Amino acid sequence: RREPLALINLKKKNEETGEEELASRLDHCKAKATRHIFLIRHSQYNLDGRADKDRTLTPLGREQAELTGRRLASLGLKFDQIIHSSMTRATETTEIISKHLPGVKKISTDLLREGAPIEPDPPVSHWKPEAVQYYEDGARIEAAFRNFIHRADAKQEEDSYEIFVCHANVIRYIVCRALQFPPEGWLRMSLNNGSITHLVIRPNGRVALRTLGDTGFMPPDKITRT
Question: Which domain holds residue 191?
Fold first, then answer.
């Protein structure tokens, strides 16, 4: 779902028509629409919870999700779907946001769960997960990138607008990968709770970053980064 040439079985190319047939088949595989990807970081949550089910949104976190939902609704876009991490804080954030976007379907996935995507460079002293986490989480988060961040399907006729509610580490890694920056630099970015990051994927595969971690729609006293 990226490079059209990769979607064609070149072994089946007709030797008689040659390049003409190849060009025709390439046109059939080329994307025509633009994808707009809105990556939302979950709202503030209870850090004292031991299990995921206990890490619910705080009262402020629920306010943040309401503000994010209103902001997304105010854009006046026809959102196609909301795909969210299956972790409690992301699910609760999604439920609140979706109230402002009636009729938009919600899809839960384990691929977008929080984790350690890749060892950061330069390293930091305050966050040092076990090395095995990078192997376990990294493969999953890379799979999330490959599964969700790509140019539009060739059958897609109109531009699409999709929301992904997940986590800071996942979003930062996806941004680096999408922009073809060294993914090891993901930890150099910081994202507020309930923030909006907007990626645009053109039919030719070019990616643009419209906004990164925007919370300008929130009052200053509502902004957190927990």
Answer: 30-220
